[in-house]
């Protein structure tokens, strides 16, 4: 890669800082760029100096603050040399003629030169642009420049995730997988230098590669290269012996409790490294943890450490954790992991406990490794040759090898139970990893081995096997047979938990009423134990919520509130996620937020990731509250975890949520690319109707934000019809609400359907949505004002602002100017309160109407993929169409966007999906009732719904 490319790609996302520097030069004497090492201050300085030279300014650079400038700038080794070289006549010019002095690393300037520079700038004879490290003291003269407001003080922060995505797109020329983006963020925390070096290293060793037009990276798979290691090591120079010891200890055992550092005599080293920014301190409840501030430092330090030193430190930390009593559940997992890495073999029971903890923490790779170690540690029986190494996970015969280990166990031996317990857990791990057939093979063999295991472990394995058979492998009758046999085997005293499995299968099959009937029959059958309630209550409440019975779901949850605190963490998290959704649907967004805030979040160490269902609930709430940027950050972190199967979510669901949040944030091209990624995942992974419909809703939302209002409305109405037929009024009304908002005339056609569906739900939000549809259909400003007030009282300020803007237009259409102005003022107040803007469809008439039709959904997908550099053949393979079809799409796209070259696609697509600057201003729109008569059904009713046992279907589906 050329040096020019290396130089320019990190500043792609620094236009805001460059603009701040240019403003500082225009109105004053310059700026001081301050930030942590590696954030890109020097590159910003060089770029700003280059632009100043291009404008004809006299530029003098100090300390390497230069670029390939030819004769446009003079370079100096020190500030003193620079100031001595300035001719006195130069200092007497006008403000525009003043020399501009660029200083890299101003904290290294000597005091005398700093004082002289201050005097010259104060006298208006010089302008200055300088950089300084955040953690380094600068000379008094430099400090006085910004303290006295002679120059601006500009903070240069690391890239956020969005900026980092833009940087990667500029460097790689294509879309970066969401999980890859999060891994790179976790490794670099947005530090420009670390990002550049890591990306270049990953490109060199081909661990960062383009697959079907998307860049993928699984993380560092081997020792980092020499250059990457050397760059990271620059920040670890001049360490004392104690500091070096602590850095080594953190590299092999972080996060490290501060108490262990103190007990090891490294307290002063911890304080020193914290002040230098090498170590960061995190509080996790009452525990204080230490980590290396640069995540990549851990890999580099560990790779350069001797094996004997690493073994000693791992044993030292494991022993210290054990002496403290291993108070937390994850402590045993850390002890076991450290001792294994140190070459020790923990006891079999410790391995099993640690493997279960790893599974609860969604660390399937570690859980699998611990299970295999448990199996390897079991002595071979007389008739087997399975001693020594455990089955190889990369082997094609992995499942068969595991089965041989289990089937040849001597049932009378003391280790038989541990072997089967490990195999049952391993089967669950394999299913969670997506190895569905291997998981079924192992679970079937272990469950049929005849060896007795604890009931909870047996039931958990049966549950996983049945769900895997019915949902992943499509063997629904076989799953039912296995479930019936298991219920008979364990007896009625323990069968209640497996009824929870029946409920979940019914939910996944969209048989929601059947799920409710099964669950409540068990719950009302008499006294049920804790394990049964925690298996049934969340699933039954979830089904009730989808059926629209929010009040019934809340009543069920509240009746078990007092005992739910004793449930396991997963059940407790899921039941609170359902409770939050019930609160939202009841119109209490604050209550929903309080419920979710009480749940465990991702801590700094990601020890206990919460369920994806909670992430989805939280992101939906954030979007309703007008905080899509927080939803984007949350979803990206969750997607990167790759936690495997979690009922009732799917892999594509959070991706679709992310696409919708990006669209609401105004990042339309990125939203389209993420939507394509979600569709690709959706084709390859299993799903269920509820998840499919949630994904469809966000797909329609993205279409609406990117300009295809007709397509969005048609898809939303189709979704509403499908959900209504399945008996899910909440999803149906939500979809119809979207259709009515984005496309004029739709509300009038679907208003009666929405009212009938809302009557089937006990949630307040659904009724307000139906009223919103009715008000839009009638162009009733007063009704829209009431709807706006209801959304505002709930806390849904963006929706309240949208309804207020629609009320203002309705009032204007009916010549009620004063009320229109009042409604518009209300809209502006709401937008200021929530910090967001109106959606693009409310400003569409501000745009000049074009004679060219908008892009279709498929054309938008093709354009988004082609703009990333994919070939026509690659696009055809990803979208499962022919190359000729792609060529035809591109021909139409070029015509519609008014471009002639593939290189113009990105610009044309951004212009086609951009929200106009006038989006927040008032725009009149026709809200006159359609003159088209309502369709009449065969029995003479106008625009009504036909009811049946399955739900409802539309008799007057609007035309797309």
Your description of this structure?
This protein is α/β, with parallel strands linked by helices. The strands form 4 sheets. The chain has a 6-stranded parallel sheet with strand order 3-2-4-5-1-6. A 3-stranded mixed sheet has the order 7-9-8. A hairpin with a 2-residue loop joins strand 8 (208-211) and strand 9 (214-217). It starts with a helix and ends in a 6-residue tail after the last strand. Mean pLDDT is 83; it is low at 1-8, 379-388, 601-608, 845-852 and 915-960.
Topology, please?
Layout: H1 3-8, H2 15-27, E1 30-35, H3 41-54, E2 59-62, E3 73-76, H4 79-85, E4 100-103, H5 111-122, E5 127-133, H6 140-147, E6 152-155, H7 161-172, E7 175-176, H8 178-188, H9 192-204, E8 208-211, E9 214-217, H10 226-233, H11 241-253, E10 256-257, H12 258-263, H13 267-275, E11 279-284, E12 287-292, H14 295-304, H15 307-323, H16 329-341, H17 348-360, H18 364-376, H19 398-407, H20 416-433, H21 436-447, H22 455-472, H23 476-490, H24 492-508, H25 512-523, H26 530-546, H27 550-559, H28 569-585, H29 589-597, H30 612-624, H31 628-641, H32 652-664, H33 668-684, H34 689-705, H35 709-725, H36 729-742, H37 746-759, H38 764-778, H39 781-794, H40 797-813, H41 817-834, H42 857-866, H43 872-879, H44 883-897, H45 905-913, E13 945-948, E14 951-954
Parallel strand pairs: 1-5, 1-6, 2-3, 2-4, 4-5, 7-9
Antiparallel strand pairs: 8-9, 10-12, 11-12, 13-14
């Amino acid at each position: 890669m050329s040096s020019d490319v290396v130089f320019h790609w990190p500043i792609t996302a620094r236009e805001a800082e460059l603009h701040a520097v240019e403003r500082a030069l225009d109105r004053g004497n310059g700026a001081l760029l301050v930030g942590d090492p590696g954030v890109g201050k020097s590159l910003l300085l060089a770029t700003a100096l280059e632009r100043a030279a291009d404008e004809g300014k006299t530029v003098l650079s100090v300390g390497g603050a230069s670029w390939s400038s030819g004769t446009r700038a003079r370079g100096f080794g020190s500030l003193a040399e620079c100031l001595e070289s300035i001719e006195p006549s130069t200092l007497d010019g006008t403000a525009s003629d003043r020399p501009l002095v660029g200083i890299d690393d101003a904290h290294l300037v000597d005091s005398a030169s700093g004082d002289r520079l201050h005097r010259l700038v104060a006298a208006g004879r010089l302008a200055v642009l300088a950089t300084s490290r955040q953690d380094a003291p600068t000379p008094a003269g430099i400090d006085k420049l910004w303290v006295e407001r002679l120059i601006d003080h500009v903070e240069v922060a690391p890239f956020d995730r969005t900026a980092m995505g833009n940087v990667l797109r500029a460097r790689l020329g294509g879309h970066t997988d969401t999980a890859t983006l999060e891994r790179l963020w976790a490794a670099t925390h947005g530090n420009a230098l670390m990002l550049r070096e890591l990306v270049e290293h990953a490109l060199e060793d081909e661990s960062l590669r383009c697959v079907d037009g998307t860049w993928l990276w699984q993380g560092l798979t081997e020792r980092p290269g020499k250059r990457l290691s050397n760059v990271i090591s620059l920040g670890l120079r001049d360490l004392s012996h104690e500091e070096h010891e602590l850095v080594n200890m953190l590299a092999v055992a972080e996060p490290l409790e501060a108490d262990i550092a103190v007990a090891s005599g490294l307290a002063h080293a911890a304080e020193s490294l914290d002040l230098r920014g090498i170590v960061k301190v995190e509080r996790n409840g009452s525990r204080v943890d230490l980590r290396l501030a640069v995540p990549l430092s851990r890999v580099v330090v560990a790779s350069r450490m001797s094996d004997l030193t690493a073994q000693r430190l791992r044993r030292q930390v494991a022993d210290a954790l054990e002496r403290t009593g291993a108070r937390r559940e994850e402590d045993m997992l850390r002890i076991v992991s450290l001792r294994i890495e140190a070459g020790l073999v923990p006891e079999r029971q410790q391995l099993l406990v640690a493997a279960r903890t790893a599974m609860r923490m969604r660390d399937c790779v570690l859980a699998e490794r611990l299970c295999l170690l448990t199996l390897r540690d079991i002595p071979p029986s007389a008739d087997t040759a399975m001693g020594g190494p455990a089955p190889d996970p990369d082997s094609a015969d992995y499942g068969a090898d595991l089965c041989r280990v289990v089937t040849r166990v001597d049932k009378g031996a003391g280790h038989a139970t541990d072997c089967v317990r490990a195999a049952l857990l391993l089967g669950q791990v394999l299913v969670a990893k997506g190895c569905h057939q291997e998981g079924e093979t192992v679970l079937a063999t272990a469950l049929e081995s005849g060896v007795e295991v604890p009931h909870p472990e047996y039931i958990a394995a049966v549950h996983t096997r049945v769900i895997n058979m019915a949902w992943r492998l499509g063997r629904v009758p076989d799953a039912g047979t296995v479930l019936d046999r298991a219920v008979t085997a364990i007896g009625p005293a323990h069968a209640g938990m497996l009824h929870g499995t029946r409920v979940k299968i019914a939910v996944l099959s969209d048989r929601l009423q059947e799920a409710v009937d099964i669950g409540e029959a068990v719950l009302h059958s008499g006294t049920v134990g804790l394990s049964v309630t925690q298996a049934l209550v969340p699933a039954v409440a979830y089904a009730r919520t989808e059926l629209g019975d929010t009040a019934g779901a809340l009543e069920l949850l509240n009746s078990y509130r007092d005992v739910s605190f004793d449930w396991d963490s997963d059940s407790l998290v899921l039941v609170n996620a359902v409770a939050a959704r019930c609160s939202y649907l009841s119109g209490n967004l604050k209550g929903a937020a309080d419920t979710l805030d009480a749940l465990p979040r991702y801590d700094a160490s990601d020890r206990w990731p919460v369920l994806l269902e909670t992430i989805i609930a939280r992101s939906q709430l954030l979007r309703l509250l007008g905080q899509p940027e927080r939803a984007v950050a949350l979803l990206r972190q969750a997607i990167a975890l790759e936690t495997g199967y979690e009922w009732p979510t799917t892999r594509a669901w959070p991706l679709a949520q992310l696409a919708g949040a990006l669209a609401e944030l105004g990042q339309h091209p990125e939203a389209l690319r993420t939507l394509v990624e979600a569709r690709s995942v959706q084709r390859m992974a299993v799903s269920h109707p509820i998840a499919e419909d949630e994904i469809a809703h966000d797909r329609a939302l993205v279409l609406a934000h990117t300009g295809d209002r007709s397509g969005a409305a048609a898809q939303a109405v189709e979704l509403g019809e499908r959900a209504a037929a399945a008996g899910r009024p909440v999803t149906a009304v939500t979809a119809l609400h979207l259709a009515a908002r984005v496309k004029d005339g739709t509300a009038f056609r679907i208003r009666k359907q929405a009212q009938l569906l809302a009557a089937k739900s006990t949630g307040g939000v659904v009724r307000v949505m139906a009223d919103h549809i009715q008000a839009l259909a009638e162009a009733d400003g007063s009704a829209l004002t009431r709807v706006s007030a209801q959304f505002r009282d709930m806390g849904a300020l963006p929706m309240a602002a949208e309804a207020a803007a629609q009320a203002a237009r309705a009032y204007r259409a009916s010549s009620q100017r004063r009320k229109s102005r009042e409604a518009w003022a209300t809209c502006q107040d709401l937008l200021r309160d929530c910090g967001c803007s109106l959606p693009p469809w409310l400003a569409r008439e501000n745009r000049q109407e074009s004679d060219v039709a908008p892009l279709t959904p498929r054309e938008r997908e093709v354009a988004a993929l082609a703009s990333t550099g994919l070939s026509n053949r690659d696009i055809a393979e990803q979208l499962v169409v022919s190359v000729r079809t792609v060529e035809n799409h591109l021909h139409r796209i070029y015509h519609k966007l008014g471009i002639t070259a593939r290189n113009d696609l990105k610009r044309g697509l951004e212009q086609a999906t951009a929200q106009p600057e006038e989006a927040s201003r008032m725009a009149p729109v026709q809200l006159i009732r359609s003159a088209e008569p309502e369709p009449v059904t065969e029995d003479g009713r106008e625009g009504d719904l036909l009811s049946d046992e399955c739900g409802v279907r539309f008799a007057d589906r609007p035309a797309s």
